[in-house]
Structures are given as C-alpha cells and as structure tokens.
Amino acid sequence: MLPLQSSGLPAHQQHRPLSQCGSLDTQGYCGQEAGRRPEKRHGTGRDADDDRAVRAADRAQSARVKPGGDDLMDGPTLCDEEEEEEEAEEVEEEEEEEEEEEEEEEAEEEEEEVEEEEAEEEKEEEEEEEEEEEEKKEEEEEEEEEEEEEEEEEEKEEEEEEEEEEEAEEEEEEEEEEEEEEEKEEEAAP
C-alpha cells in the first residue's frame, strides 16, 4: 500500500509515510495509530464506510504517484525513497572515487620515494666512483714521483762514478809522469 499524507479522514485513520510511522498494521493503518482507531467491525455502518474511504484514498494515492516521475505529494513517497536510494548510491560512488584517489596519491608518493631512493643510490655510486678515480690518480702520481726520484738517484750515482773514474785516470797520469821524470833523472846521472 502506498503512503498518503492526507486523505480527508479523521487523524487517527489517516495514512502517513512509511518513514514517519514505520510499517502498516494488518488492517492497513499506520502502526502508530493502531491503538487510537476504533475496533473494526465487518458489515455496514461507520466502520464499513471507513474501509471504503481508505480504499478510495489508496487508489487516489496510486494515481497521483507516477512511476519514474515526481510525486505530487508534499510528504515522502515511493519516488522520494527512490531519490534517497539514488542519493545513497551517489554518496557511495563519491566515497569510492575518494578512496581511489587516495590510493592513487599513495601509489604516486611511493613511486616518488622509490625514485628518490634510486637517485640517492646513483649519486652515492657516482661519488664512490669519483673517489676511486681520485685515489687511482693519486697512486699514479706517487708512482711517477717515485720513478723520477729513482731516475735522478741513478743519474747522480752515474755522475759520481764518472767523476771517480776521471780522478783515477788523473792519478794514473800523474804517476806515469812522475815515473818518466825519475827515469830521465836516472839516465842523466853519471
């Protein structure tokens, strides 16, 4: 049975929207009003007229609510419930979109962190390579200096040897000269 805001019946027999009264009782009245209405009796009389009025009101309400369209009542109707369901679905979709956006942002942040870590590792590797190259260069320079020093020492030793040889030759020449003079003196003596 469709909800009806006002049917022209007494207040205790008027139907209310489901959102206001909960559920209908077995006789078609709102559960909140069940205790206030008079006991129904079958047959003729006031209660039978009330039954007919309720059925007429139900038919009028059914005619006034168009499937898929806007209802003409001021209170909540089936269309209102459909709208509420649609709104709930929209809210759920928005929440899902927000969750997806958050997940995407988290994924982007993780990617950025990974990229930063990789960049740092590359930088460290480059620094290590530079240090190794500098150390290698220093070692080569030290080796070159040592070789130069050794060559200088060898040259110096060679020069000293040459000087010693020259001195030895001079001494030999002096000795030969002395011997020649002695021989001349001996020959000249009577």
TrEMBL record:
Please list where the region (Disordered) is annotated.
1-190
State where composition is biased (Acidic residues).
79-190
Name this protein carries in UniProt = Uncharacterized protein
List all Polar residues biased stretches.
16-26
Question: What ranges does the record list as Basic and acidic residues composition bias?
Answer: 34-58
**Species this protein is from:** Heterocephalus glaber (Naked mole rat)
